[in-house]
Automatic annotation (TrEMBL), chain A:
InterPro entries, per the entry: NADHpl_OxRdtase_5_subgr, ND/Mrp_TM, NU5C-like, Proton_antipo_N
Protein name: NADH-quinone oxidoreductase subunit L
Membrane topology: Multi-pass membrane protein
Domain named NADH:quinone oxidoreductase/Mrp antiporter transmembrane: residues: 135-421
Alphabetical list of NCBIfam families matching this protein: NDH_I_L (TIGR01974), PRK06590.1 (NF005141)
One of the GO biological process terms: electron transport coupled proton transport
From TrEMBL, chain B:
Catalytic activity: a quinone + NADH + 5 H(+)(in) = a quinol + NAD(+) + 4 H(+)(out)
Protein origin, superkingdom: Bacteria
Listed name of the protein: NADH-quinone oxidoreductase subunit K
Principal cellular location given in the protein's record: membrane
Keyword Lipid biosynthesis: no
Length: 631, 99
């Protein structure tokens, strides 16, 4: 059974190779090949999952050693896989949601002549992401980590004829590089500290290592997570990444790749548990991003960018939970899975709306779409109820647990974190209600586009609505299935450990408070966007609104501090290069040039000049000889 | 007669020859001045031979004569062909080696 693990990666990798190397003759069958291989990977995942359920809870980890990758004395890197409950959860999420989004893309990308290439990239992404979660050492994880970065770059810039998409792809790649540097430094530190980078030995040796080293490793891992998961301060790329096709936003920039940072932190839990300072940094990053993303999400009129702000905020929740230690690991992953369902569903819904609206993304030009797109409306609505944490739906269980865990951290820290998480829940309700009202309710506000085409909103084809319906089922039932009877906690506990913590308030109080905040947020949104007609041209708005529209000035900050700073640095380096280095080099060359120019004049071609120099030379020699003899 | 006087004569002749080589432009005159220098050397060699009482200097003087004879042959040939191509015997006209 263990030998099947490699097949998880091999199937989509084969798909990517066939589709990208196959050329135009595969254009007509390419999307079927891609979808079939993604589904094959999902089937393998399910087979492995059912096998795993047959083992004892403590002995569920499956391993497969494929081959020795870099065998050097004292440096052993293997291509080896480890499939435990944590990896299994990710495998099922990635392949399941991935397959659905492959199916959706068949319809969504129908009119794109580069559809085969698109499916090749999607398969490449699946292979890299699966490699990331089933690797049994940090070096192999790094391979997957870079692979998903590459796939993300290729897919954000898929419509490369649009300069904005090409720029967004480059931006995502560059910002991710900063985080990737963190991961590579962390791996190097691990190797110098532990002499290995396999999960088992590293994570079991944290007890005998100095806290300083572990803190350094932890902070570097956090930097990596910030880059991949779009957390403050490396969050700026996610909003622009919405330039990619919507299925990509759903799969990579909502459900799977951006959660890789959460996986990294939960997987490295032992390191963070032994380094409280690093853990505190994780919590702070999570809490700040949670509010940051939510505020940005409130102001955006672009439906995908509003959802991107929401993704940032929800991953902030997960990072926050992962930073709480054993109290939160399980809930971080649980929220990750439920978020994978409802956020992918929301993005697919947004894509379906765009599909029917001539690719219009401005919500101010939607309005009243519920009559035209009933399936999209219902599935999007269920995703909406799930994300705001409506009682009984997925988000209710997973987000509530995180808020409880934040309070259970204890002390002042617990109160602060709990309040931030609670406030975030309120803002979530506000911006999601805003998206819902602006898109599906109110008067219709659409106008002919630049080419004078009147949009004719219509329901999307079956290949698009079926994945949305499946994801809506997940959004509704997954949370309850996981949370009731603590099923998910028991499932993950052997890997991530679990600790109840000491909650200062009862779970019922937290739930009650969450409900109050949620209703307040939703009511405020209704008062602002439901009761009054929405202007088609965005009003100027308050200072905060304008800042949030500009992503809370993140790009301006980066521009002033990093771009300008970098420009000044390079300019001064160029100055030093020109004046000092070039000065020395050019000066040497010029002085030799001048000297030889003068020496050249000696060679005037007159025989008598040469004769004079011969006579002079002889005279000097004779004089010197005589002088030496005299001395 | 003191043999040193011959040395003075040799030095005088050499100097006349050398300055002739340096200042005169006519290739034939320059050539004759070179001969003068060679003969000044010969005179000095023979004088030294006499002063030291051995024959080494005289033998070298014979060699010089042979070399001078060969040089006359080659030199005159060059001068003649130079005159043919440039219609002048001035050494300054043959200054084509400079850049």
């Amino acid at each position: 059974m263990e030998n099947l693990i490699a097949l998880l990666v091999a199937a989509p990798l084969l798909g990517a190779a066939v589709l990208l190397c196959g050329g135009r003759r595969l254009d007509r069958a390419g999307h079927w090949i891609g979808t079939l291989l993604a589904a094959a990977s999902f089937v393998v995942g399910v087979v492995l999952f059912s096998a795993m359920l047959g083992y004892e809870a403590e002995a569920r980890t499956m391993r497969q050693h494929l081959f020795s990758w870099i065998p050097v004395e004292g440096f052993q890197a293997d291509i080896a896989f480890q499939l435990d409950q944590l990896s299994m959860t990710f495998v099922l999420l990635i392949t399941g949601v991935g397959t659905l989004i492959h199916i959706y893309s068949i319809g969504y990308m129908e009119h794109d002549e580069r559809r085969r290439r698109f499916f090749g990239y999607l398969n490449l992404f699946l292979a890299a992401m699966l490699l990331l979660v089933i690797a049994d050492n940090y070096l192999l994880l790094y391979v997957g980590w870079e692979g998903v970065g590459l796939a993300s770059y290729l897919l954000i810039g898929f419509w490369q004829h649009k300069p904005s998409a090409a720029t967004a792809a480059k931006k995502a790649f560059l910002v991710n590089r900063v985080g990737d540097m963190g991961l590579s430094v962390a791996i190097m530190l691990m190797f110098t500290t532990f002499g290995t980078f396999a999960f088992g030995p590293v994570l079991s040796a944290t007890g005998e290592t100095s806290e300083g080293k572990l803190t350094a490793i932890g902070l570097m891992l956090l930097l990596a997570a910030c880059g991949k998961s779009a957390q403050v301060p490396l969050q700026s790329w996610l909003g622009d990444a919405m330039e990619g096709p919507t299925p990509v936003s759903a799969l990579i920039h909502a459900a799977t790749m951006v959660t890789a940072g959460v996986y990294l932190i939960v997987r490295s839990g032992a390191i963070f548990d032994a380094a409280p300072d690093a853990q505190l940094a994780v919590v702070v990053v999570g809490a700040v991003t949670l509010l940051f993303g939510a505020i940005v999400g409130c102001a955006k009129d672009d439906i995908k960018k509003a959802l991107a702000g929401s993704t940032m905020s929800q991953i902030g929740y997960m990072i926050l939970a992962a930073g709480l230690g054993p109290i939160g690991y399980v809930f971080a992953i649980m929220h990750l899975v439920t978020h994978g369902f409802f956020k992918a569903g929301l993005f697919l819904g947004a894509g379906s709306v765009m599909h029917g609206m001539n690719d219009e993304v401005d919500m101010r030009k939607y309005g009243g779409l519920r009559k035209y797109m009933p399936v999209t409306f219902v599935t999007f609505g269920l995703g909406y109820l799930a994300i705001i944490g409506f009682p009984g739906l997925s988000g209710f269980f997973s987000k509530d647990k995180i808020i409880e865990a934040a309070f259970a951290k204890g002390g002042t820290e617990g109160w602060i974190l709990g309040s931030v998480a609670l406030l975030g829940a309120g803002i979530t309700a506000f911006y999601m209600t805003r998206v819902m009202l602006m898109t599906f309710f109110g008067e219709k506000r659409w106008q002919p586009d630049a080419e004078g085409r009147e949009p004719h909103p219509h329901e999307s084809p079956k290949s698009m609505t079926i994945p949305m319906i499946v994801l809506a089922f997940g959004s509704v039932f997954a949370g309850g299935f996981f949370a009731i009877g603590d099923r998910f906690t028991h499932w993950l506990e052997p890997v991530t450990r679990y600790d109840h913590g000491h909650a200062p308030v009862s779970a019922a109080t937290v739930t009650g408070a969450t409900m109050v905040v949620l209703l307040a947020g939703a009511a405020l949104a209704w008062a602002m966007y439901g009761r009054r007609p929405i202007p088609v041209v965005a009003p100027r708005g308050s200072l905060l609104t304008r800042a949030a529209r500009r992503d809370l000035l993140q790009d301006d900050f980066n521009h002033v501090v990093l771009v300008r700073g970098g420009e000044h640095l390079t300019r001064s380096l160029v100055y030093v290069d020109h004046s000092l280095v070039d000065g020395v080099v050019n000066g040497t060359a010029a002085s030799f040039g001048g000297l030889s120019g003068r020496l050249r004049k000696l060679q005037n071609g007159y025989a008598r000049t040469y004769a004079v120099s011969m006579f002079g030379g002889t005279a000097v020699l004779i004089a010197a000889t005589l002088l030496m003899r005299a001395v | 007669m003191n043999p040193v006087n011959y040395l003075y004569l040799a030095a005088l002749l050499f100097t006349i020859g050398a300055s002739g080589v340096l200042v005169r432009r006519n290739a034939i005159v320059v050539f004759m001045c070179v001969e003068l220098m060679l003969n000044a050397c010969n005179l000095a060699l023979v004088t030294f031979s006499r002063m030291h009482g051995n024959l080494d200097g005289q033998i070298v003087a014979f060699f010089t004569m042979v070399v001078a004879a060969a040089e006359v042959v080659v030199g005159l040939a060059i001068i003649v062909s130079l005159f043919r191509s440039r219609h002048s015997a001035s050494v300054d006209d043959a200054s084509l080696m400079k850049l």
